[in-house]
Amino acid sequence: MVSPIPSDRDLFRRVQKGDAGAFEEFFDRYSSSILNYVYRMIGDWQAAEDIAQETFIRAFRHVGSFRFESEPKTWLYRIATNLLRNAVRKRNKRSEYQVRLFPMDEEESANRLLEGVDESQRPDRQAMGREFERILQEAIASLPERLRVVVVMCDIQNHSYEEAAVLLGISYDAIRQRHSRARARLDPLVKRFVRDIGHESESDVS
User: Fold this and answer.
1) 162 CB neighbour count, 10 Å cutoff
2) If residue 67 lies in a helix (H) or strand (E), which one and from where to where?
3) Do 93 and 146 lie in a common domain?
4) Which member of 41, 124, 159, 200 has the lowest number of beta carbons within 10 Å of its beta carbon?
5) For the residues 179-190, what does the mean pLDDT come to?
């Protein structure tokens, strides 16, 4: 008989009873998503690895005092978010960070960022090329941190508003409003880029 998959809460209860192996299982469950989240916020792979590692170190160090007032995953993301904010404050140079939007095989993230463009006018990924990603990287990096994190959560990691609200510890309405404000800044840029790509294609044909 196959054993049921333990919940995050079950794993934390086991850790609190001295089962270090349970934390290893928790680490395996979320290490990739935490690293992905941090990397897309700062665009620096080495810094992202360091912050992700410190996130789990702090979680393990303080798991004994975890009171189960929230989900372990939510708590973990909040640790990572606080470490990110501290790292940004220390460097105090936004230009040192380049937001990594999506590798070339993550079509869903690209499509979400193109939602404001009529489907018939969307260029294919090859036509967009790296220039599109570079421009969006710069645009998202220029957003205030409170807007940037919502774009990364909702458009890059594809969390729902409800999930992002829980993970960031703010209200659903705040997530929705911040995402709307962020997209209001990004969408005109995306549409302008797509229009320019279309004009270039027409010029090539003529």
Assistant:
1) 10
2) none
3) no
4) 124
5) 86
> Do 85 and 107 lie in a common domain?
no
Q: How many domains does the chain have?
A: 2
Residue 158 pLDDT more than 60?
yes
Beta carbons within 10 angstroms of residue 61's beta carbon: 9
Residues 24 and 84 in one domain: yes
Q: Do 81 and 32 share a domain, yes or no? A: yes
Residue 198 contacts residue 118 (beta carbons within 8 Å)? no
Residue 133, CA atoms < 13 Å, CB-side half-sphere: 21
The tens digit of pLDDT for each residue in 93-125 reads: 544 444 444 443 344 555 555 555 455 544 555
What is the extent of the structural domain holding 139?
100-199
Between CA 22 and CA 6 the distance in angstroms is 9
- 177 pLDDT exceeds 70? yes
Point out the domain boundary residue: 49, 80, 97. 97
pLDDT tens for each residue of 1-22:
567 899 999 999 999 999 999 9
Q: Are residues 59 and 131 in the same domain?
A: no
